[in-house]
Amino acid sequence: MKANPISPTIPLDQDGVHHGFLKLPYSRDDSAWGSVMIPITVIQNGAGKTALLTGANHGDEYEGPVALQELAATTRAEDVTGRLIIVPYFNYPAFRASARTSPIDRGNLNRAFPGRPDGTVTEKIADYFQRKLLPMADVAVDFHSGGKTLDFVPFAAAHILEDKGLQEACYAAMQAFNAPYSVQLLEIDSEGMYDTAVEDMGTVLVTTELGGGGMSTARSNAIAKKGLRNVLIHFGILQGEMQIDPSVTLDMPDGDCFVFSEHDGLFEIMVDLGDHVEKDDVVARVWSPDRTGQAPLEYRARRGGVLISRHFPGMIKSGDCAAVIGVVED
Ligand SMILES: [Zn+2]
C-alpha cells in the first residue's frame, strides 16, 4: 500500500512535551503548495501505556476539543507515565467550518475508516490514524456530542463486542470515565466508524455523547475534563485519585430505542432529556409547516425508559432521528 502523505512536525516517540502539527499536503486554488495543518501535542515520559485522545471527529462537537486543549496546555512531561497523543481537532477542516463534515470533500471522518492514503483529505486523515497512530495506542478516547442536530444526556459508552475480553476492558474504561450516564451502545451504522477501527485492532475505546446543539456548557465541559482525567488515571498514565460520582447505567437493546420522523415539519418534543417515558407515550409531535387546522403527527416510544437523545433544531425532516430511548438497568 502507498505511504500516507501526512507528516508530523514533531517527534511522536521522544520524551518531553511537543506541540506541532500533522501536515497534510493539500494543493488548491488559494495555496498551490499548501497543507492542512492539524494541531497535535505529544507528551511522553518513559515507558508506559499510550493514550490516543481525539476531539472534533465531527467538527461541531465541542467538549472534547475544550478538554483536550486544556490537557495539552497544562500537562507537564513529569505528570505522565507513558505517552499522551492529543489531537483536539481530528477532522480539522470540519472543525474550522463549525460543521459535522469536511467542507473540502464532504467527508464524515467517522464513516471514512479505514481510509485511503491516495483518497480525499478526509480519507487520508483516516488512513493515517488507522495505520500510523492507532497501532501505537493502548487506549483511544474519542469525544462526541450531538453536534448541531442532536442533543444528548451526558454519557460515556462501550459497545457490545464479539471479543468479550476487550468488551470487559472497554466497559471498565467507560466506568472510569464516570459520566452521569453509562451506555452499552448499539450503533445504527457502524461501517466505517473510527470506533470499529479501534476495536478491530483490539484496542480499548472510550467514546462519549456529552451534549449537543453545536455548543458546549460549563457542565458538559466539566464532565469531559473529569472523565478524561479518570481514564488516564485508570490506565496509569496520570497519577492521582479518580473522582467517582453516581452514574446511571443504560442499555440500548435493539432498534426499538430509536424514533425516526417520517414527516417534514415543526418539531415539538414532548419530554425532556433524562425524563422517564412509558411504552407508547407520545415523545414528539410534528406540526404542518404550511397550514393551520391540522392535527399534529404523533411519534410514540416503542419501549419504556429514559429520553437520552433528541432532535435539536426546531424544524424536522423525514428520516431525521427524533428521539432515542435508553433502558435503565438495575
Ligand atoms: Zn460525533
UniProtKB/TrEMBL annotation:
Pfam families, alphabetized: AstE_AspA_cat
Signal peptide range: none
EC numbers for this chain: 3.5.1.125
Metal-binding in keyword set: yes
GO molecular function, one term: hydrolase activity
Source superkingdom: Bacteria
Cofactor(s) listed in the protein's UniProt record: Zn(2+)
Keyword terms: Hydrolase, Metal-binding, Zinc
Name of this protein: N(2)-acetyl-L-2,4-diaminobutanoate deacetylase DoeB
Provenance organism: Tritonibacter scottomollicae (Epibacterium scottomollicae)
